Each structure stands twice: as C-alpha cells, then as structure tokens.
Amino acid sequence: MASQAEIARSPSGEVPFAISELFYSRTDPRGVIVAGNEIFRRVSGYDWAELLGAPHRLVRHPDTPRGVFRILWEALGKGNPMAAYVKNRAKSGQYYWVFAVMLPIAGGFLSVRLKPTAPLFPRIREIYDDLIARERDGLDPEASARWLHDVAQAQGFSSYTSFMASALGQELAARDARLARAADARTRVLTEMNEALEETTREQGRLLRSFDALQSIPNNMRIVASRMEPTGGPISAISENYKISSQAISVRLHGFAGARDSLIDRVSRDVAKALFLLGCGRLLGEMNASFLAAAPVPGIDWEVERALLLGLERDCARDGREAMLHAVEHSATLNRASAEVRRHMLGLDTIRVLGRVECGRMRDANGGLAATIDQLDAFHAEIKGRLETIMRLSENVGLAMDRYLRSSAATVA
C-alpha cells in the first residue's frame, strides 16, 4: 500500500499511487459506476456516495483523446477486451495516468488499472498531446480513432489492437521488473507471439507488393512476342499461361493475407485477445488476494463482489485459452495456405524455365525477351525468399503457441 507521503498530492498536480497498487471499477451497460475498490476511491478523491451511481466519465480528463474512447467502446461493444493509456482527473482537479484493461462482463463492464511505467509511456503522452491539439482544431472522434490506427501502423503494427496488446505485455513486464519479481513466462510468450505475428503481417505486405508488381511481366512478354513471332507463337502462349497462373496465385495470396478479416488478421486478433485476458486475469488474481484484508464499502455487497471477481479471474484463464486454441486453428490454416502458394510457385517456375528456353532458342533476336526473363528470375527469387520467411515466422508462432498452451495447462493443473 502507498504511504501517507505517497498519498499526499504532489506539487506537479499528479495524484501519486504506488506501482504495487491496482484498482478497478465496474459499471453497468450505460457506464454508471456500481463498484470499485478503495484505491480507486482514494486516487479519484471522491467519496463512495459520489462515485456509486455516477457515470464513469466523472473521472474523465479532457487530455485523453476522444478517439481513444471511440476505439474502446467499439471493441467492448463487439464483446472484445481492450486496453488503453488513460489520463483521468481527480475531484481536486489533479490528474493520474493509468494503463487500463477493460472487459465486457455480464451486466456491464470491468476496468482494471495499473500505473504505467514501460518505456513506451512517454511516447504515448506525446501522441496524445498531438491528437488533442488536432481534436481542438475540429477533428471528430471517428477521425481521431482513424488517426490512432494510423499511428499504430507507423509504429509497425497492423492494428491499434495489436499495438495495445504489445503495450500491455510491456507494462506487465515493466511492473514485474519494478517490483523485483520474476518475469511471467506466459506473458512473455504471448508478447513474442504478438511481435512474430506483426513481422509476419509486414512480410506478407511486402510479398503482396512484389507479387502485384510481377503481374506486369506477362504484358511485357506479349509485347516482345508481337515483334518476334506470329500471333499464337510459343512466347505468346508462355506469357498467357504465366498470366493465368500468376493471377490464380494472386487471388490466393490476397485471400489469406491481403483481404479484410484475413487469416493473419484472425490469428492476430486471437493472440491479442489472449494477451488482454491473461493480463487482466493476472491483475485480478493479485487484486483478489488483497480482498481478504479489504474493508467493506458502504453500498457494495463485498462478498458478492469478491465472488464475482474470483469468477472473472477464472473466466479470463478459460477464455484466454480458448482464444489461443482459435489462434492455433487459424495459424494451421495459414501455414497450409502459405505452403500451397509455394507449391503453385513451382508451377510458375516451370513456365519461367520454358521462357528461358525460348529465349535461348531465339538468340539472334532475344534482347527484349532476355531482359524480361531476367526480371522474372529476380521476382521469383524475391517472392520465394519472402514465402520462406513467412513459413519460418509462422512456424515460430506455432511453437510459441504450443509453449503457451503447455504452460497454461500446467498452471491450471
């Protein structure tokens, strides 16, 4: 617990609380506060009579961008957990920063908060300052949310959800280090998986761009053919076969890597969900242990609340494991799809070799054709290299999933 000195308001205007302290609040579906713990009450500066029955926006600080809440409520409304850095305002007008993990639960929502200490936190504050200025200039919440998604992509993430899942892993690791505790193996594995999936996503984007660029080669071959042979000659036939085969592969690639709700998106969402649930479960477990010494709160049935939080801790473990099992299924499908594309590339290689043979046969007038085949050679080498990288990354994700599930099973046992 925080000392009296820590509880005292600091000159900076920030309400201090200890890294070891966790607090939560629970709301109904409308966002009205129905429960919380003493740390929440103390840090917010309100009395319980002021908190219970009040809308949670009572502690909202104007320095938290509206786009953040738009993303949070969109995720929660779809039944998904989410996390965010939030600057709150105490009754005194002072502020306090939290990293909040939020869950949709029966009868409303739960938010568990910890003190942010990861190296990412200062960068988040800069991002929020920039976005708040844009909102004051007229940026609406929807556009603000899109801007945050763009920021996540600029940070190297495929989505804001993956960005926040990574942030949660970093915050949990930083908290463990500050409290001189051993790193949690499952959190580390999930964080590594999230990073591997993000690298897979980036590599797939490069693969799609390479393959889209490849589509211009058959047209170049036809142009060369029109100067070198009668209509329907061997080069024309090779270029047409290459075009048909490459387009078929392109459709497959865009199906599992480039489309909205693609396989890689599903794996990424499931891993992020598991990370959110695991993190919330860890924090709930720590809070639940402190409930034995907690004083009852007027207006809250403490025994019912304690039983509810214990149940949520178990639910997080169960639902996190289920999310990982879904990710395993999607990852296996992704691996099969990648292997299938690689097999189809062998067919393209055969057509490319036929083009090289024709290039050699027409050595007296093959300058344009030779350059085109050289382009094919370079693209094929690049594409096969990217496919091998994706297969390797997917294998790493699968191995990490297996480690997580085994450690999770051992924990449950």
From TrEMBL:
Protein name, UniProt field: PAS domain S-box protein
Keywords: Membrane, Transmembrane, Transmembrane helix
Segments forming domain PAS fold-3: 37-105
Matches recorded under InterPro entries: PAS, PAS-like_dom_sf, PAS_fold_3
Highest taxon of source: Bacteria
Bilayer-crossing regions: 95-114
Pfam families for the chain: PAS_3 (PF08447)
